[in-house]
Amino acid sequence: MIRESLPQLEGELYITDGGMETTLIFHHGVDLPHFASFDLLKDEAGRQLLRDYYASYVDLARELEVGLLLDTPTWRANPDWGAKLGYSEEALEQVNREGVRLVDGLRTADGPPIVVSGCIGPRGDGYQASSRMTASEATRYHAPQAETLATSGADMVSALTMTYAEEPTGIVHAATAAGIPVSISFTVETDGRLPSGQSLRDAIEQVDAETDGSVAYFMINCAHPTHFADAIEAGEPWVDRIGGLRANASAKSHAELDESESLDDGDPAELGDLYAALRPRLPAVTVVGGCCGTDHRHVGAMCRSWSAAS
């Protein structure tokens, strides 16, 4: 089983997707209330939009001859965000299962190797840490989604846009109890620190200490490389726990992006170069992809530049 030996941990490069929600909204004109792409899973028209979105990355991975890690469209599929869209607990369980089923259906005999990751997002906002839970509260809150994703056949779960250390600590405990490996991805601000104010180093070390190092790997997401480059201390043990990057296309702050009514998709080639510049300091990274404002063009540039920097 893939769960027992995640292939992206074996040293081969895997790409993942870019900014799903920004791509669907700005490039495809899709209405996503509350940035909730899981709502598209409710009917066949929405599911086909998601398949078409993922297909660009399947094609890219085949072209680049690399592996592909795909997160399910369930980042917002938790009780608080689900309630805003009128979803019951039973309906949320169903869309989480459908998300795994949809991504698993992209696997083909002649396609790239695909790792299906059940995506778990924060209870609150992925840009702010104004409302927090203890680790034990987070375990209870996220356990139903982690269990559903695990029993639906996901290979792993990914917790994205985490803004403080206690919530992902709880998610790790929930995933461990569900018997599924987990990666943790932190959002950082323009100063390289989490929205909570904690340093990236301290957050990674705290989660590792409180979970007996059971996180498969950590990631950095939802920030431009220029925001976190100075926070990476080459040669430090905690840096070797970072296995993936999902940067924003824009160098704007989260506050600026929140207020923007148009998409800042930056320069894919420049973003690729910035990834390549980080490679010597991030020897454990084997998963490269994007976050807000990025699409398959950016991920292609990232992958090519990363490979060339080896």
Q: Beta-sheet strand percentage?
A: 5-15%
Tell me roughly what share of residues is in helical segments. 40-55%
Strand order of the largest sheet: 1-2-3-4-5-6-7-8
Low-confidence parts, pLDDT < 50 over ≥5 residues?
none
> Total domains, how many?
1
Radius of gyration: 17 Å
Question: At CATH's second level, what is the architecture?
Answer: Alpha-Beta Barrel
Tally of separate helices: 11
Write the CATH homologous superfamily. Answer: Homocysteine-binding-like domain
Give structural notes.
- The protein is α/β, with parallel strands linked by helices and 310 residues long.
- It has a single domain, classed as Homocysteine-binding-like domain (TIM Barrel).
- It is built from eleven helices and eight strands.
- The protein has an eight-stranded parallel β-barrel, surrounded by five helices.
- Strand 3, helix 5 and strand 4 (156-162) form a beta-alpha-beta unit.
- The longest helix has 21 residues, at 44-64.
- The protein is globular.
- The mean pLDDT is 96.
